[in-house]
Amino acid sequence: MIISVEEALKQGVENIAGAQPRPDFVFSSRIDSGSKKNIWFSSVLEDLINKNLSIQNYSEKYIQSLSFIFVVFPDADNGVDWKERKSYTRARKILKLEIKLPDYQRFCDATKQEAMKIMAEQTLRGTEKFLSKVKDFDYPKFYTDLKELLEKEGIL
Amino acid sequence: MNTSVSIKTPQFRFNIKHILLIVAFVVSAFVITNYVAIKQAAENTPDLSIEDIESLAEEIYTTGGLGGILDDLPIEDSLIKKMQTEIERILSKTIDHQGCEVYYLRAKQNKNYPVLRYGNVLVGFVNLKIDEVWKVGMTKNGFEGRYPNEIYLNNKKLDIFLDDNDLFYEKIYTGTSKQCLITEKLLIYTYPLWCGHPYLIKPPGCKIFR
Fold first, then answer.
1. Cβ–Cβ pairs < 8 A, chains A and B
2. Which residue from A53, A76, A94, B183 has the fewest beta carbons nearer than 10 Å?
3. Are A136 and A39 in contact (CB under 8 A)?
4. Cα dist. A2→B39, B83, B175, B199 in Å?
5. What average pLDDT does the structure give for chain A?
6. Prediction pTM value
């Protein structure tokens, strides 16, 4: 049922989508229906990284939240053209990286462990591609910490 | 010899226990009635899949007309008429771009999501579960053209900011602009039939029926 704005506020802003500060690291996606089954496991990566890493250790003031957005479409997709890119929202200090997962079918058919590995590898690749030259970001430290964490957890 | 027998019955006194009993009865009756009504509504609601909608849209697109195809949809007559008029307007268009797509914005978290109305008015909130659809949309300019700032909602009054942290984009259909507009229209109008929230007349993130 629809609840009023007052009722929603009474239930607490923590229960309202978009009303809470963003986590340091966000994993999201732009997908088609075929890849949805495995993309859910990106939330495991999101939880893991947020529990173990802090954005403040890598950026002093310009980045408060870093988003990894997996783009997963078949190579022969006839829809809109998707490209890898990075974008920065100055007002909210959010840096977003759109990372295209290669080999669509392999990802769709992967087991949980394989899918997590693909996403972890592509996160590292995207990090290298987009973050290595970003000012106010300690890329070498972040890359090392992230890789070590993923290896320690047996994902890589 | 007169004998009289008197029986003394304790005087009935209405106390707090009786009040609680009545309240409990009224609450139980309310809950049961609601449960039965919702169950009945859920049972009567036909299962409509994206494939059903796609084949309906395909039929409309290829035949170039409605021909009563939508008449049996279990939604209000006024809405069916409105939808028919809008689809006829789409069909009468001469331009039909290639490379368009219909998409869902799906909830990424179990939370209260805004319900919007024309003019970006916030009507209230609805509790969505992870993966439930907040918005149905169509784009011919790609994601970047549709959401250049990658922001799905920015309500400054309540400081609500929906972006990739709250929703994810799922492409569900690729086709020409006419095909996509028809599919989008059907999905929006039939939302109460497939979304799991029969009391909503359209997706909460859609301000209007298009």
1. 118
2. A76
3. no
4. 18, 24, 34, 8
5. 91
6. 0.82
